[in-house]
Design goal:
Layout: E1 4-9, E2 12-17, H1 28-43, E3 49-54, E4 59-61, H2 66-69, H3 74-93, E5 99-103, E6 106-108, H4 110-117, E7 120-124, E8 128-130, H5 144-152, H6 154-163, E9 166-168, H7 169-175, E10 180-182, H8 187-199, H9 203-215, H10 223-234, H11 238-248
Parallel strand pairs: 2-3, 3-5, 4-6, 5-7, 6-8, 7-10
Antiparallel strand pairs: 1-2, 8-9
Helix pairs in contact: 1-3, 3-4, 4-5, 5-6, 9-10
Bound molecules: coenzyme A.
């Protein structure tokens, strides 16, 4: 992998987008590498939580690589967005292993879209978030027009998209776009702390919950019915037996 670093320790995979001289902008190769590594990590039984972050102290990801698409025509533009959504952004959202974005600086355009595809986000104090695409004469193409309104509400999303402006970490916290804001030096440790809390729980149940939550955002899918089905499926698993037995025996469950 030329553009990302993957480190697995204590059941946590830290995936670092590593093009700091280009503020970790997402070129085609980086998207392919992220897509491949996500697929590998989801299959890796050691990995219980995945954390996405950016190399350096300045940027999480400053967007899709503008140099790469500047001369695209309509068809190429459509393919770029379609392939990116299909191969990476939707894969992250639907990953059965929890994915947390640790936003360590600029999260712009495709960078914010990447963070929004994760299951939730933690930001450092210096983070700046925005969807500046209309300033380039294009619109967000990696799910930004859909996920931003889901997270912050339609009016705030419209303003962010139309102004192409950036909001700081505290405004992002007020908007509900990030769950926590911490000092940059503490960002990864803080996020690992959340990962450890997650890892005490049943991976099977977490995967079922991710699936049910996401179902509520899929047109034509009854999220309540998916919840009923997934709830029922849990009863047929060893992890359910272990979780309930451990509670009744007044001990910690071992998943
Ligand atoms: N695509 C390609 N290259 C990018 C990039 C992007 N999205 N964002 C930053 N870079 C590159 C710059 O071209 C520059 O490369 P160079 O040193 O070879 O010239 C390098 O990263 C550093 O960026 P620079 O602009 O010099 O840093 P800065 O501190 O002055 O500004 C930003 C930081 C984030 C405000 C600015 O880089 C920016 O506006 N980036 C584009 C954001 C954007 O529109 N993203 C949406 C894309 S759809």
């Amino acid at each position: 992998m030329n553009n990302i670093l993957v480190d697995i320790e204590n059941n946590i995979a830290t995936v670092t987008i590593n093009r700091p001289t280009k503020l970790n902008a997402l070129n085609k190769e980086t998207i392919e590498e992220l897509s491949q590594s996500l697929a590998n990590l989801e299959e890796d039984e050691r990995v219980k939580v995945i954390i996405l972050t950016g190399a350096g102290e300045k940027a999480f990801v400053a967007g899709a690589d503008i140099a790469e698409f500047a001369d695209f025509d309509e068809l190429e533009g459509k393919k770029l967005a379609g392939k990116g959504q299909n191969d990476l952004f939707d894969v992250i959202e639907n990953c059965s292993t929890p994915v947390i974005a640790a936003i360590n600086g600029f999260a712009l355009g495709g960078g914010l879209e990447l963070a929004m595809a994760a299951h939730f986000r933690v930001a450092s104090e210096n983070a700046r978030l925005g969807l500046p695409e209309v300033s380039l004469g294009v619109i967000p193409g990696y799910g930004g027009t859909q996920r931003l309104p889901q997270l912050v509400g339609k009016g705030r999303a419209m303003e962010m998209i139309m102004t192409a402006g950036m909001i700081d970490a505290h405004q992002a916290l007020t908007y509900g776009l990030v769950n926590h804001v911490v000092a940059q030096a503490e960002l990864l440790e803080f996020t690992y702390g959340i990962a450890h809390k997650i890892m005490r729980n049943s991976p099977m149940a977490i995967a079922a919950a991710i699936d049910a939550v996401n179902a509520g955002y899929v047109d034509g899918t009854d999220g309540y019915q998916v919840e009923i089905d997934n709830f029922g499926s849990c009863f047929g698993t060893d992890e359910f037996v272990e979780g309930t037995t451990a509670f009744l025996e007044k001990r910690k469950a071992e998943f």
